[in-house]
């Protein structure tokens, strides 16, 4: 710092003397550049005052003692400001490093939780997933075999790195479930135990789990306190709620979940969503469910992906493109 301060003293003295003698604004421009460099080099406020005092002493004309005395007082005051300034620089650097780590963690989370959209042989599936921050608290997953297509959507009550870790654990639990867990209700009961045993007491998870049977065209689903979705009945041209009652994962050890069923005809579609969709802010409140249904219906003739994307765009416009919560919208449309 001594070398930097010495160089800054010479430059500052030159600019100050030049401006006092000539009044040319080019010296003010140079001082502006000088101040930016001083900040980047970490020169403290009290050092700036000291440099100014030293520069004043190089002026040929004698300065009144009162001026120098006032600078002594100012330097004393700036010592405290300088200490805060240095602390703020340290905090800023720590925050920048943390943001870099969170960004890396977000990329890792996306890689770990990625899933493949089912083929379009039986269902047309569209997903719009927009995290409110670098790391999402929503997790969706698909699994397809010869007989069925499984869809799940979970939402951690919480955000950030803890929520991301909880989602990774949930995916691991699903992939390593015992062979005797064969129903959607059984899977939720099993995952509830996993969450209750491994996640802190103040963190819970809501989850929707459904299975579409390719042979009989029946969609069987269950819910652990998750946001209620919709079923669009193409024949009657109406919506019905996908009502499902169940306790959130992790609240208590033993929980029995109920199963519900819907028979899907061609043109019918299922809407699965997180609370980031239903809590779209309009003025001082949230969007009404009927308004949301009407919005989805306005795009019902489009592909599943186009429905999801267009609904997101409209809802984002309503709240000035600011996400207050993680947004996940899944459309599952029967096409064959």
From TrEMBL:
UniProt EC number: 3.1.3.3
UniProt entry keywords in alphabetical sequence: Hydrolase
InterPro entries tied to this protein: Bact_Sigma-Reg (IPR052016), KaiA/RbsU_helical_domain_sf (IPR017944), PPM-type-like_dom_sf (IPR036457), PPM-type_phosphatase-like_dom (IPR001932), PSer_Pase_RsbU_N (IPR014787)
Domain PPM-type phosphatase: 120-334
Keyword match Hydrolase: yes
GO MF annotation terms: phosphatase activity
Name of this chain's protein: Serine phosphatase controls the activity of the piezosome (Stressosome)
Provenance organism: Brochothrix thermosphacta (Microbacterium thermosphactum)
Lineage: Bacteria, Bacillati, Bacillota, Bacilli, Bacillales
Gene it is expressed from: rsbU
